[in-house]
Design goal:
Largest sheet: 2 strands, antiparallel
Mean pLDDT: 84
Shape: globular
Structural class: mainly alpha
Helix content: 40-55%
Strand content: 5-15%
Strand order of the largest sheet: 1-2
Low-confidence stretches: none
Number of strands: 2
Amino acid sequence: GRWRLPPGLELGLRQLRNGTKCVVRAETRFAYGEAGRPASDDEGTLAVPANADVEWRIEAHRLWFKEADEAMTPADQLVEARNKKTLGNEHFHHENWKKAAANYGEILKTLNPWDFAEGSDDRSEAETIYVDCGNNLVFALIKL
């Protein structure tokens, strides 16, 4: 994504709600891969060796969803999500995993199912699209 997070961490963060805690465990391919990660005094982080599985303990204090235009209504979000999912599915069908993953990732960044009224058909559709795209993103990343 935008902050160059490991895919496993990014997917874990997307599942959290404000005030929740979790442990995310990721195999090397969803963590830092063959390159690992050097230590950083500026960020206060330790080195992660190459090909290491990792575990993050996360507590969400504040979440945000939209990188999209603030003028975008929930109805607009849903239309855009449908279109991007269709495009992602086309890339997926043609085994263009990188483009499929990019489309699914964009949906996860901009579609916020909690913007829709609880129990509404739009909320149900938004939740379905969100979960489907998360699952498809994981599969596309595995295929890369």
